[in-house]
Each structure stands twice: as C-alpha cells, then as structure tokens.
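Customer escalation, tier 2.

The customer says the design service returned an amino acid string that "doesn't look like it belongs to this structure." They asked us to rerun it and document both sides in this ticket. The original structure tokens are below, unchanged.
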C-alpha cells in the first residue's frame, strides 16, 4: 500500500457557498433559452456535507480506484458517522496506512477490494491493525 494514498483535510462548513443551479437538469442536447433566467442557488456545503462534525475531505493519491472513476488528485468527501455497508467505498486504515477501497464482506471475512486490476484485494485478518475510517459519499474531479 502507498502511504500517501490520501491527504485528509477537515471540512470547513461554517461559510455558505451558494452557487446558481439548473434545477430542471442539464440537457446534453440543444440548450434551452430559458437557462439564461436561472435564479435558483444551491449551497454546496449543505448539499455535500450531511454531518459537518464528522465529515472530512481527502485528496486521492494513486490509481487503485481508477476503474470506479476515482483518479489521482480527485477530492473525496468522507463521512465518519456512517455505518459501513457491504459494497461501500471507504477510507480504511490498515497497518498504519490509509487506503481507499470497496468493502466486501463474505461470511464474516472483510475484503478491501480495489477498482484496478493492477492491485489485489486485501483480506483483513485479526493480525491487521484495521479501522474503517469513513465512508466516501461524493467524489469531486477537476475537469480543466
């Protein structure tokens, strides 16, 4: 595992970040002239952060989740208050290192599964120092 799989930052939600939103959806075809008259706004902190005191941001380092659309440099929103479920993408602490993987539970055995064939799943045993640190609720990627 790469010790720099994730840089973690506290979520700063005391400020309002209100931006215009196309509430009717965004069409991939011919644009509507009515889109020039949008006056609705969305606060990204309220939309993306459900539990402010237990939410953190993480900047991805590495490529183990690229087949899930999570790439090096992407920002993850991580909620530590959520109960992990089978199939969740999670930030886990394994033997002193952070990693981002899918949680797979089979007959009381926990597997951490990457989304890149270059990496093998990690079987968590009682010998591991293991913690599911938080659940990934959103990923943000830079387009330009």
């Amino acid at each position: 595992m790469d010790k720099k799989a994730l840089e973690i930052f506290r979520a700063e939600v005391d400020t309002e970040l209100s931006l215009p939103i196309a509430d009717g959806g965004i069409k991939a075809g011919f644009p509507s002239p009515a889109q020039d008259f949008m006056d609705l706004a969305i606060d990204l902190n309220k939309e993306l952060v459900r539990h402010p005191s237990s939410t953190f941001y993480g900047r991805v380092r590495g490529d183990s989740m690229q087949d899930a659309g999570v790439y090096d440099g992407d920002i993850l929103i991580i909620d530590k208050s959520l109960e992990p479920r089978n199939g969740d993408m999670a930030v886990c602490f394994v033997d002193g290192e952070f990693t981002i993987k899918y949680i797979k539970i089979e007959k009381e055995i926990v597997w951490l599964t990457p989304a890149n064939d270059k990496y093998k799943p990690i079987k968590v045993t009682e010998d591991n120092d293991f913690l599911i640190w938080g659940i990934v609720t959103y990923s943000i990627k830079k387009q330009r």
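Tier 2 assessment: The sequence is consistent with the input. The two ends are 29 Å apart (CA to CA). The chain has a mean pLDDT of 85. Sent an explanation to the customer and offered a walkthrough call.
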